Amino acid sequence: MSQLVVLPLIVPFIVALLSIALRKTNYSDLVAVSGSLAYLGAVIMLSRRVLVEGPVTLQAGGWPAPFGITLIADSLSVLMLLLTSAVFVAVNIYSSGFIGQKGKRNGYYTFLHFMAAGMSGAFVTGDLFNLFVMFEIVLISSYALIAYTSDKDSLLVSMRYVVLNLIGSSLMLISIGGLYAVTGTLNIADMASVLSQGSVNMAPVLAFSLLLFCVFGIKSGLVPFHFWAPPVYSTSPPPVAAFMAGISKKVGIYAVIRIYFTVFSAASIPENALLFAGEPVNTAVAYLAGAMAVATLLLGGFSALHRQSIDRLLSYSSVGQIGFIFIPLSIAMLEGSNVAMTAALVYLVSHGLAKPALFMISGLIERMTGTSKLEDLGGLSESSIVFSASFFISAFSLVGIPPLLGFFGKMLVFKSAIVSGNFLLLTTLLAGAVITLMYFSRTWLEVFFGEPVDYARSEVSKKEVFAVAVLTVLIVVLGVGFEPLYQLVEKASEAALNTEVYVETVMEES
Fold first, then answer.
1. Do residues 76 and 495 lie in contact, with contact meaning Cβ atoms separated by under 8 Å?
2. In sequence order, what are the residues at sequence separation of 6 or more whose Cβ sits closer than 8 angstroms to the Cβ of residue 291?
3. What is the mean pLDDT of the chain?
4. Alpha carbon distances (Å) from 195 to 26, 70, 183, 255, 336
5. CA–CA distance, 475 with 396 (Å, rounded to integer)
6. Which pLDDT value is given to residue 287?
7. CA 420 to CA 15: how far, in whole Å?
8. Within a 10 A sphere around the Cβ of 473, how many other Cβ atoms?
9. Euclidean distance between CA atoms 218 and 205, whole angstroms
10. What is the pTM of this model?
11. Which candidate among 13, 277, 425, 449 keeps its CA 20 to 30 Å from the CA of 393?
């Protein structure tokens, strides 16, 4: 049953090809939504296999590791795949009501499913070069989706995004090539094994690890590499912004977790180094990640406070919220803390559901009223109880209101800082939580309970409303019934931290 690991890649890839063939017909919506459900089904099948019997490994073409292409799905992989597939279903349902015939003919669904295939490949690949390839598939798809409307603003933003990510891709390829030159392998498990033996020159390994982290910082939107995110999210179609802010960023975060806790956890900085001499490589990366995370949380939050439109507010909020994930990750890098890793993953899931729902709601509000400016909106709770309830649940889940899913994520993040004894990080987290409460409360009150404003009403599709409701219900259900998700996240955390099991699983199958 090792072939199950290929299904999350193959299903969206096949649907993407079908979308090309059917883009001029009336069946493209049906194929896209059905394909996303099939993708979810494939992920569930793989997840059941992994959670019951352990990691699934496939050596493509029968070539043993580290010589062939390795695909591996463990608990961390399936957590990411389950989140991606759930949001992907909602995005496709929303898109079927949002995207017009022009978008379908221009290959909207094709690029959307190629993006899902690239994300899935990143979550299950077992070598660094194929991780690079999957990143490129995601990026190429995102270029087209950002520029899908073909207006001046979207094309300009897309071109800037292209240039920035070409630089990032070049740096990633340089880092991977450098690590290959030093270790003689690209297989993640084999590279971890080589570095644990201490038989290679660790100075270039440290340099390439820091450079690679900066690349993943670009992908994740960490300060000072965050500047691409707000214009991209606010310019893209709402379902694209939802998928990119909710899931695409998480590919970079997953790469940080997989590579730094698997490959570099056993690597040591040379004794003659000026800084962190004799310490693990992850110690230096942790300080860099912690500093960038603090700046990201505060800058993104303060920037969101001063935005005058919902889409721009959500865009800067998406920057700030990533800090709540990277702060516990930096703690986990320093201490190998299961508590911190669990906190990061729970918050990752809660953000991955809430932020797409908020971008979709923003798109519906703009469609219905003709504007997203806060000063031009008011009293929407009287005309749309669904939007009102959905926005409240999604936004205040990120604030940390019980019993919503975000409450558990926020509390675990605070717990990780308290257990580590780092009260500077705890203070930063508390400040970030207060800022989040301020800008979401302001938006909630102005948009839904302010003075009613006359606007040109435009009907929205029931499909779009249903997609928002799906994510909103998930936030409530996973919060009220948190225990099963917590058990899955604990397994994912253990898989992220236990390098030996990962290495043994890959190498024993070769």
1. yes
2. none
3. 88
4. 54, 19, 7, 18, 18
5. 11
6. 92
7. 46
8. 12
9. 20
10. 0.94
11. 425
Give CA–CA dist 352/476, Å, rounded: 14
pLDDT value of residue 509: 59
Amino acid at 360: M
For tokens 């190429």, what's the residue? 140
Cα 330 to Cα 37: distance, rounded to the nearest angstrom: 35
d(CA 331, CA 290): 8
For residue 452, cis peptide bond before it (omega within 30 degrees of 0): no
Rounded Cα distance between 317 and 202, Å, is 38
Please choose, from the candidates 354, 335, 330, 465, the residue with its C-alpha nearest in 3D space to the C-alpha of residue 407.
354
Cβ 103 vs Cβ 466: under 8 Å: no
List the beta bridge partners of residue 70.
59
The predicted structure's pLDDT at residue 446: 84
Q: Which residues contact 195 (CB under 8 A, 6 or more apart)?
A: 183, 202, 205, 263, 264, 266, 267
What phi and psi, each to the nearest 5 degrees, are found at residue 22? -105, 15
Tens digits of residue pLDDT in 328-343:
999 999 888 899 999 9
Rg (CA), the chain: 22
Query: What span, in angstroms and rounded, lies between the C-alpha atoms of 116 and 384?
Result: 32
Whole-angstrom Cα distance, residue 306 to residue 149?
Answer: 27
